[in-house]
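Lab channel / #folding
Pinned by the channel admin:
"Please post every new chain as: sequence first, then the structure tokens as a reply. Keep commentary short and put observations after the output so the thread stays searchable."

First post following the new format, from NK:
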Amino acid sequence: YDGEVWFTDNAIGRLLDYVNAQPWGKDTVVVLTSDHGESMGEHGIAFQHGHEIWETLVRVPLVLRVPGVAPRRVPVKRSVIDLVPTVLDLMHIAQPGGGELSGASLSPDLVDAGRGDYEERDVYIDMPDGPYTHMRRAIIHGGTPGLKLIHMGGQQYQLYDLERDPEELHDLAADPVKLGPMVEALQAKRATLVENVVKPDVPVP
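Reply from TO:
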């Protein structure tokens, strides 16, 4: 695994060196992110992903290098679903209407961050039923890092306080006072989304 990290780091370095050497390099936006994390033994999972939505599996880097914008760290939670509207903004392309995009541009984080005024946003996580996975949905709600509600279908929920319990070891779902508002937040978020169900081409035996 360390070798893969070294190889990837080296390849990215070569790419960035090439970009920086070009006349258009100073006008180029660079985005680095990932589609998933990796478990290193947490929750009994080692070197696997795609089966659950623990923080180790869904928390990924999101790094943007934007010409003319000083480096900074956005201290509140964000989602890669915001990436497309952000890139459209940076390229001065109008956002499509009709609810086509669910994310929100991160441009305010880039241009207004000097004031230290960052908007809190919920993060929605979705892993649909598939041939090798079971449905999992989650919302991370409230002030960063927030409370995380995992829904596994029906009335099956798990709830974690990511500030006090970042490793997601102490399930709070048995507390109706904590659970109720989180279920409402999840339902409200899902009501804003258009879900497309994709069926497998070949039935799974």
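NK: The first helix runs from residue 2 to 21.
TO: also worth noting, Strands lie at 30-33, 62-65, 123-127, 136-141, 147-151, 157-161.
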